[in-house]
Amino acid sequence: xxxxxxxxxxxxxxxxxxxxxxxxxxxxxxxxxxxxxxxxxxxxxxxxxxxxxxxxxxxxxxxxxxxxxxxxxxxxxxxxxxxxxxxxxxxxxxxxxxxxxxxxxxxxxxxxxxxxxxxxxxxxxxxxxxxxxxxxxxxxxxxxxx
Length: 146
Fold this sequence. Notes:
By secondary structure, the protein is α+β, with helices and mostly antiparallel strands. Helix content is 32%, strand content 45%. The protein has helices at 2-18, 116-145; strands at 20-24, 34-49, 56-72, 76-86, 89-90, 97-102, 106-114. Strands 1, 2, 3, 4, 5, 6 and 7 form a seven-stranded antiparallel sheet that branches. β3 (56-72) and β4 (76-86) form a beta hairpin. The two termini are 21 Å apart.
């Protein structure tokens, strides 16, 4: 029984980390919000390492950026990057850089939100699966012991 409870708790913890989704927002998210920003077309994006504003890099053909909002002005949104994506895929080595995204090129902003219902459903399903495996193991052990 102890193994079943441990398995259920482990399954719930694994599922809890995966139950986030990006949802479109009507107003600009506040600083610190985790977002995904989809651009209207392939755009050149300037980025710099935090504390090194004098060293900027330009990344051409960016279609999407995800990370945390640092600040927003009328014509630019500053995002601490988690990832930049182009048509070819993810751009390497951009994590923790601050990207300056032109507001005129932003198609939509999606905010990362926790999905309690999906997490609960996944946790219950995984717990049921772990319990069924435990019962099957118990049946096999008891039938071999007889």
